[in-house]
Amino acid sequence: MSLLVLFPFLFSLCVLTVRCNPISGLTSLPPSAAKVCTLHNSFEPNFVADGDYVIGGIFPLHYNQEMPDLNSTYRALPVKCNGFDPRAFRWAQTMRLAVEEINLRADLLPNYTLGYKIFDSCAYPLTGMRAALAVLNGLRESDSPMCQGASPLLAVIGESGSAQSIVVSRILQPFRIPMISYFSSCACFTDRKQYPTFFRVIPNDDYQVKAIAQLLVRFNWTWVGLVRGDHEYGRFAVQGLLRELQGTKVCVAYQEMIPLLYNRKRALQIMEVMRLSSAKVVVVFSAEGEMTPFLRDYMTQNITGIQWVASEAWVTASVFTASEFYPYLGGTIGFGIRKGHISRLSLYLQTINPQMYPNNMLVKELWEALYGCDPFALPGSLLPPCSGQESLLEQHSAYMNTSNPRVAYNVYKAVYAVAHSLHNLLLCQLGTGPFQNKSCAQRNNIHPWQLQYYLQEVEFNIAEEKVNFDLKGDSIPYYDILNWQRGKGGNIEFVNVGLFDGTKPAGEELVIQEDRIMWPCFTPQVPVSICSASCLPGSRKAVRRGEPVCCFDCVPCDSGKISNQTNSIECTLCPEDFWSNNDRTVCIPKKVEFLGYDSLGIALTVISMMGACITIAVFAVFFYHRNTVIVRINNSELSFFILFALTLCFLCSLVFIGKPTFWSCMLRHTAFSITFSLCISCILGKTLVVLAAFTATRPGDNIMKWLGPKQQRTIIFVSTLIQVIICAAWLIDDPPSPSPNTQYERSKIILECSVGSSIAFWCVLGYIGLQASLCFVLAFLARRLPGNFNEAKFITFSMLIFCAVWLAFIPAYVSSPGNYADAVESFAILASSFGLLFCLFAPKCYIILLKPKKNTKQHLMVK
């Protein structure tokens, strides 16, 4: 049954037994109502003391309970609480000690005494609600006169869990009774509209979740699990942590909830999720009550390697200090509330024994929990009997751990906050008070809302620590960072390894001494909890579809992009003149390539020099045999011109090798075009002479007078001059120049010579092609003319080779970039030059050198 259903029933049952109502000042109810209002059940306080002013205390003296059958047809059985908590029992005794100290002081509440009523909430909201209703009555629940006058209860110290505090605070709110919690850190209590009477001496959970978020980021735990209790404390804490983690690299692998009424089957399901998950860090927002059975079952599952991050609700729980917990909980790190010192606490706790409280069942349960015996054993008892006079020793840490009290210290501060506020209220002078008409509270009729005013304003010191409340009822945000380490006796010790001070500027709150931390499994290294391994420099993160951003794949950067940081989201594009190295981590200057003196360049250079040397050698042969018939009859002057032009053609291919410069680029295209134009012009002249010589033998022909030496030189000069004019216009209008090509191969800069004007470039080649075509046609017409030394057929073959080379050059040149284009052009020059050299001069050299008998006039006249 939900609390919303049970609340009207319990409230209607108990409100008739409430002794007073400070708001409405209700007078006695009608006699008929009094007659029918009878108490059907009892909820007695565990500890009670009378005083001039009474305060209540609610503590989770048990951490579990069995729900009774709520069938309304018969009387419900009392709630049965299980799992005695010595730690919470110590808190209750701390409240009693503080009240007794205050009653003995002469400087605080002189001539007045404090009383108390302490109830058990069983760490359950429903029982906490019943305790709140019971605490509103007289000293005992059986004392239930009708309401009149002010409330005898001025304030309540409690509750432990936030879920219980929400219920208790809302019940106390109509009566405007202030409540000071010693262990409820839920951020929800900052809403003053919903909780106007709530105060606390523990920091707001908003600071704790901020601290935990900074801790996760500090140790690079980007893949974590969240486990919480089924209550408002866990819900608000998880919401706050998720809010703090937004914008960080931390992702949540799973969220699980421990049932409020512990269910082992559900707990085992949670543990299976933890076992299968790759998240090795688990953040837990839970109370000691549900964590105790959960962790006992956890140990049975033999799950190790988990790094626990504990909230303040259970990080200092003494019940987990036993050596059996260490293999599974050792290395736990968490945030504990500020510790303090209570001088008389240890001695006071030792005075509690069954002999002193023979009728108190809590003391009996304490002995059973600490010694495993029954001080009031009866025949048939399940536990062995004991005297009840056993000494309380330090090894009973669950109860006797008083060296660095934390929650108990909060209880101590809460009681003193009430005492100081009440003291200030009693010091009020008539006419200077804070209430209507500057009035003060009546000392014998103090209303709780009047005490609340002074609580809001109170400020005092305990052991050099300032205690006060802000406008939301919160105290100073301060946490100790605790690490669970093995002590000398094998038990777990809470070692302070840092602090979180919420009053410091953002980013400076967390201080950790990492060298003092002991991690799980005795490892000195910080545990790793990630969904995906970090992407090294040279790669980027690619988020997996449908998964959190912490789960990703590492994709290598594309060529030309780099990432020089771990876990880069994007790769950075290198500048235009730079390229990525092989690891994709650094942009390096692009390699500049051109047709240099590498293997290809050396090969072309050797071939070019060989061609030039061969041409010079032919020139020397022809010059030496210049008076022979075969040289003279084939126009030795034109032959020497052709050989000179071919030598230049071979040499001009060298201009294409080496780093392009402004002058070399202009020289490359103009040199080869003019030299080839000169060469083809000479061949054209020779073709015309051959054609004229064989046609002039017919009677009446005088064509040779038009092709004399002067005319031949004129033809050569004019044909070459046209090419020179085209080249001059090219150089003037848009000359070739060095150009870095970054488009063909982005990883390199290919330094090439841009042609400048494309029209001029193709005009130059077209003119050479026109000359070659004309030579070819004329030579083809004269190929069948008689004569042993008719050169027409050799000129035909040379032009065929020349045209074939340059026709093949065009597509090869267009499709080849940079140095390869230069190599193609150089190769075309060399190939066409060799073609002309061998076709035109090889037959003549053969005759001159190897067949000198054929180099005679008689042999020429045979045909």
UniProtKB/TrEMBL annotation:
The keyword Membrane applies. One of its GO terms (cellular component) is plasma membrane. The chain crosses the membrane at residues 600-624, 636-658, 670-694, 715-732, 759-782, 794-814, 826-849. Belongs to the G-protein coupled receptor 3 family. Residues 600-863 form the G-protein coupled receptors family 3 profile domain. SUPFAM superfamilies: Periplasmic binding protein-like I. This is G-protein coupled receptors family 3 profile domain-containing protein. It is a multi-pass membrane protein. Keywords: Cell membrane, G-protein coupled receptor, Glycoprotein, Membrane, Receptor, Signal, Transducer, Transmembrane, Transmembrane helix. It comes from the Eukaryota. InterPro entries: ANF_lig-bd_rcpt, GPCR_3, GPCR_3_9-Cys_dom, GPCR_3_9-Cys_sf, GPCR_3_C, GPCR_3_Ca_sens_rcpt-rel, GPCR_3_CS, GPCR_3_vmron_rcpt_2. It is found in: Cell membrane. The keyword Cytoplasm does not apply. GO terms for molecular function: G protein-coupled receptor activity. Its main location: membrane. Residues 1-20 form the signal peptide. The lineage of its organism: Eukaryota, Metazoa, Chordata, Craniata, Vertebrata.
